[in-house]
Amino acid sequence: MPMPYAASHDRQPAVAGQFYTTDAEPLMEEVRGYLAQAQPKNAAHTILAMAPHAGYYYSGIIAGVTLGQANLAKTVLLLGPNHTGLGKPFAVWPDGRWLFPGGSLDVDEELAAYLCEKEPLLTPDTLAHQREHSLEVMVPFLAALDPETRIVPVCVSHPGLDTLMSVGKAIGRALRGFPRPVSMLVSSDMSHFVPHEVAQKQDTQALEPALRLDPERFYETVRGEGISMCGVLPMTVGIAAALELGAAESEVTGYATSGQINGEMRRVVGYAGMLVS
Fold first, then answer.
1. Is 158 in contact with 91 (CB distance < 8 Å)?
2. Spatial separation of the C-alpha atoms in residues 215 and 164, rounded to whole Å
3. Domain ranges across the chain
4. In angstroms, rounded to a whole number, what is the distance separating the alpha carbons of residues 263 and 153?
5. What element of type H or E holds 49?
6. For 43-80, what is each residue's pLDDT tens digit?
7. For 27-276, which CATH class?
8. Does residue 101 contact residue 21 with C-beta atoms inside 8 Å?
9. pTM beyond 0.85, yes or no
10. How far apart are alpha carbons 89 and 125 in whole angstroms?
């Protein structure tokens, strides 16, 4: 007997009520307020963006000024770190919808299947995403910008530089051959739980090779200098993919630490936004 077709996977919010409000209207109002503080939208297509994923109170403004300035395609490949340790090393959410209070975004099933076909290490896997917050907090921002946005969420936990580079290049080649334009969005915070001045210094060190679009140097700097940037793995993949897509320009859209929000300067988390075209 043929197997019945598996039902599509709708992802319920895991951190609504913690990282952002569960109330639909105040949520959209808050997100639109952050987006409204962005510089005018870039003319060039955004190949790759990076935005932070802390609670909106802390990092919402940096996410807003970054994504508000970005010129994103209708389909966005989301690349985030794996904070839970669950699931596959390159876990692709294959279908269904990602829900948030008051709405949802559809997963681009065609792109998800196409990527998994082109790069075998990209694996359909929902387990890695079940309790992971890094990509979830991006969804209301993308929905506020364009409720018709389609997403392909990918959770990255493979630690090896060679493999990250190889998968990144494969993603870039695949996107180049895909019939529709796609933007990539990496979700990452910067330094964690260090004094404000240390965070600023370390995060500048990490951003320098990222801005030069040098994924190997970026990875080696973050790892070698012991910088606790949680999204080093997906950002390495993202930069490698962006180079395959002809990326040439990069800019930092904003930077802050949690200490500048809550006044606790001895133990901060850094937040940076970046755009690549």
1. no
2. 9
3. 27-276
4. 34
5. strand 48-51
6. 999 999 999 999 999 999 999 999 999 999 999 999 99
7. alpha beta
8. yes
9. yes
10. 10
